[in-house]
Amino acid sequence: MNKFILDNGAYLAKSGFSTDEYPKMTPNYITKSKNARETYIGNELEDCKDFSGLFYQLPFQKGILVNWEIERQIWNQIFKRSNVDCPQTQLIVTEPIFNFTYTQECLEELVFEEYGFDSLLRINAPNLAAFKYLKTNAKDFCLVVDSGYSFTHIAPFYKGNIILEGIRRINLGGKHLTNYLKETISYRQLMVMDETYVINQVKEELCYISTDFESDMKIAKFKGKENTIARDYVLPDYAGLCKGYAKSQEESTGIPLDSEQIIRLNNERFTVPELLLHPSDIGIKEMGIAEAIVDSVESCPSNIRNELYENVLLVGGNAKFKGLKERVFKDVRCLVSNKYKLNITCDEENSLSYAWYGGKMLAEDKEFDDLVVTKKVYDEFGHSACKKKFDLNN
Amino acid sequence: MTDNRESARLKNLERGQILDEATRLRRQRKALEALERDNFQDDLIALNVSDHRLQINKKFQQRFTIEDESESTIKENASNSSLTNNVKSENIELVNSFLSEPPSTKRKKLKTESKLRYRKNFATLLEEELLTSQENKFNYFSICVSDTKFPKRKFCAVCGFNSNYTCVQCGTRYCSTKCLQTHRDTRCLKWTA
């Protein structure tokens, strides 16, 4: 029986069979290009040559799947691409923690009644990440910080079971960082509010998280050669240059060469990702990642707290920011008593697909068949069977 | 007659209008809500029906419109949803999705998928979830993180460095008189909420 793992993120869907070596990344949205007058479903975006003014249609809103018409089209594409034979396949799908009941019911209806999969496992992405971490490091406790496109979840785990008291959600993710960067560039330099795709590239290439915020601010104030932070980014013009790039430090003079359009990023490079740790910078009253980690662990029973502090795991798209691990360590270390040892793990290269690899390990585990709900059971009992098996409150 | 055109910005500046706390909060909330948006431009393609996918199967379209009335209720719901400004594109997306479905789907199946086709918007789902989650101690609303204990850091709106002063009229922060000048030239009270 084949097992297909679909890590259904709001930005990227990571999919693949459990026998595949690495997952396929599909953009989980539909884009429309007004210049080419084309609509790209999911992966067809690779064929797009002109990314300017790209119009996004996301099936997700605030991280919850709302628009099933769009999602169905993307899933059709994903399943077709991997040649999935639905009645012979067991499916693992990820959902956010405490997903809405309506979304869960729609998902089960789609999976069982329309596609006709053999069985389904509806699970949270942090759960899969914890499974991988606990197995590879032979530990019992793990605190997963999953920072993605729509929000950040912090969830403590004990041997694969989530500890309900410690779950936290920060409503800030990669989407808000990109929009904030668009706003600041539009105000200070060039109107880019329509160019989500291009500014997202800028954010991924140039932004980082500073370990020492104050001293980086001082360096950014210098002019000329002493300012080691400012960088130029050459915008694509789709006549010769299809993808923008950042100039190296020597070439970044702030003066564009002919027929080049540049934007100069100075303190935006590190103040934008700073929002993850200090949402109050922009007026959002919530705690940042470091404070929320401490809040989460402190609400767990006291005898497990040092185990949780020793096994903090950062996954998700935002974990790819350079310097996140060091900065989170520094901030949490300041907030937490000396008697606790603190240890943070973060695999920058694979943080996007970490949960998928966890799903792959889970699929090959011998206890997998006990966790799923089969089509027969669903046909008899409906959503209540899935709710009983997958719901976190049970 | 020739003096009918007046600049609202200049008028406000001359009056020395100072926004009160409630208006400032409202403006800030609008700015934060803008962070949630996917697109800042309109969907130009949906309004123009030259998309080749729509012209492919006119026969399918006819069959689709005769088939059942639930399609008209979906159109009503789509037009009622205040969130999106591309209502027409939703209808076109609906047609698109049925065009792209695998041909083996039987006609009967289209009728029974009422749950999937009746699209609820996020606000409705949130309200429903609020009602059903009262029974559980831990739910979508309880796990939201609480307010931060640290004080708010203040940055200049123009240059991004640390700011010590606020604009008297609108409350935006600035760091030096040069940045204040830039702020006055461009954005102060540009949109009076």
From TrEMBL, chain A:
Work out whether the entry's keyword set contains Nucleus.
yes
Q: What is its main location?
A: cytoplasm
Q: Which domain of life is it from?
A: Eukaryota
Q: Which SMART domains match?
A: ACTIN (SM00268)
Q: Name one GO cellular component term.
A: nucleus
List locations, semicolon-separated. Cytoplasm, Cytoskeleton; Nucleus
InterPro entries hit by this protein? Actin (IPR004000), ATPase_NBD (IPR043129)
Role noted for this protein: Actins are highly conserved proteins that are involved in various types of cell motility and are ubiquitously expressed in all eukaryotic cells.
Protein name from the UniProt record? Actin-related protein 6
Automatic annotation (TrEMBL), chain B:
Domain named HIT-type is located at: 156-188
Q: Which GO terms describe its molecular function?
A: zinc ion binding
- Specify the domain of life of the species encoding this protein: Eukaryota
Q: Which PROSITE patterns match?
A: ZF_HIT
Q: What are the BP-aspect GO terms?
A: chromatin remodeling
| Pfam families cross-referenced by the UniProt entry | zf-HIT
Provide a GO CC annotation, any one: nucleus
Keywords, A to Z? Metal-binding, Zinc, Zinc-finger
Q: What is this protein called?
A: HIT-type domain-containing protein
> What taxonomic lineage is listed for the species of origin?
Eukaryota, Metazoa, Spiralia, Gnathifera, Rotifera
